[in-house]
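Render this sequence as a predicted structure.
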Amino acid sequence: SAYMPPLFSLGYHQCRWSYFPEARVREVASEFRKRSIPANVMWMDIDYMDQFRVFTFNDKHFPDPAKFNADLESQGFKTVWMIDPGIADQPGYFVRDELLGLTSIDTKAGGAVRAPSGEAFRGGVWPGPCVFPDFTNDKVRQWWAGLYKNFMATGIDGVWNDMNEPAVFETESKTMPEDNLHLGGLYQSAPDQPAQTVTPGNHARFHNVYGMLMAQGTFDGILGTNPQKRPFVLTRANFIGGQRYAATWTGDNSATWNDVEQSIPMIINLGLSGQPFVGPDTGGFAGNGPKDEVERADMFARWMGIGTFFPFYRGHTARGNIDKEPWAFGPETEKASKIAIDRRMVLLPYLYTLFHEAATTGVPVMRPLFFADPKDVSLRSEDDAFLFGDHVMVVPQLMPDRSRTPAMSKGLWRKFDVVDASHAALPTIYLKGGSIIATGPLMQYEWERPLNPLTLHVALDESGKASGTLYEDAGEGFDYKQGDYLLTAYTATATNGQVTVAVGQAEGKRQRPNRPITVIIHGAGGNTVLTGTDGQPITGKFTP
C-alpha cells in the first residue's frame, strides 16, 4: 500500500520552470500571503543548480540556500528542489567522479549504466553529456541515498525526481538504448520484506522500473538524513509498488481544454493502479492556453477548480510561458482560484483521512463515479464527474461551452459547500446521503494552527442516519505507527425532529483535543447548524 505522506504535501504547491533567482521565489511567496491565497510549498526547478549539475547550487541565483529555506519556512512555506538522474560527465565534478569510481562495484564504469561495450553509457540531458546511476544495483542506490545528507541539511523539505524515464535528448526514442546494460543486485521492496536477488539484464528489461528505483534511493536518502520526518518525493516515472516511495505527476501536459479533461481519467486510472498520490501540472505545462484571453482565463479557473480535488495539487508551467500564478489572469480568475484553494485547505482533514484509507486499504483518494453504484451502467464511462473519497461527488463543466452534462450517481446527494463563496468556474459538489465528513478552519498553510475548531458536514440518509470517520496524527513523523493517532467514527441519528451527533467509536492513543465543534446538517429544506464540544453528544432540533 501507499506510504502516509507528510500533511504539508497535501496543500497547494506553486511551481514553474523556473523561479529564479531567489528574489523571484520570495516575491511569489509573499504575493500569496498578501492576497490571502493559501499555499504550502514553493518549488525549485533546474535553474537553481550550478550548470545543471545535481546536488549543487548556483552561487549567483541561490547564494545561501539554508537562509533562503529558513526564511520561507518562517512565512509558512516548505520547499521542494529538483534532482535528475543525468550526471554531468565532467571530470572533477564530485557526483560524477564518485559514481564512476564506486570501488564496491567491479566494472569499468563503476556504478553507471553501461553501453554494450562495457563503458559507461553517455547521453545528453540538461548539462550536456551525462552518465547515469544504475539504480538496479543496491550499492548504487545506497551511494545515491548518501548524497542527500548535505543537500537536505540546507533545510530542503522534499525532492522532485524529474527526467527519470530516463530522458536522453539525442536518441530517437528520447530514452536509453534498449541494449544498455544494468548490474542488478539486491532488491528489498520494504523494510519488512525479504531481499531478492535481481539478475543483470539489458535496459529493455529494466526501463519501466528505472524511475521507481531512483525514487526508492531518493526516499531512503531523505529518510536517512531526517529519520523523524516522512519523506516527500515527487517522481515523473513510476511503477507498481512505487507508491511506497513517491507521489507521481502525469508529466509534461499542455494548456488545452483536452488536457484539462484528460487530467481526471489519468488520475483515476493511476489510482486504480495502486498510485493514490497523483496529479497533473494544473494550468498546463506546455503553451499559454487559448488565444482568446477571456477563454484562457476561464480554462485556468476551471482547472484550478477541479485541482481542489486532485490528490496532488500543483500549479506548474514551462520556461518562456506567461505567468500562471492564481492572480496572473486578472481579478475574476484570482477570485475563482482563491475559492478553489480555500476549499482545499478547509477539506484537508477529510483529504488526510482519505490518504490514511489509501495507506491502509489501497483504495484510491479520487475514484471513478461507478464506485458509487457499480450496478448503474450509465456511470461506467463517466470520466468528467468523479468521487472524492466515498462521500463527495464532484461535477465540473469541462467543455469550453459547457455543452456536456456529466452523468451523476442516482440516490440521495445533497448539494453543499465547505466555504462561504462560489464561482461559476468551479465544480458543483454533493455530499452523499448517509455521510459525515470533517473539515477544518481556513488557513494560509496547513501547520498554521491545529485542527480547531472542527466542523462536521452531515447528509442523512432516508432512514435519518449518517456516519463518517476522521483520522488525525502529528501530520509528520512515524509515531502514528506506535499508536499516536486518533481515528474517530462519528454517527448521526435523527428521530421525531431531533438529531443527535456523537462519537460512535474511536481508536488510537492520541488524546482528543478539547475543541469546539460545529455540525452542519445539509437537508432538503436548508441547513441545520448545531454547536458543541468534540467527543460530547450534540442534540438539537432538525428540519428535514
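Summary. The radius of gyration is 24 Å. The longest helix spans residues 331-361.
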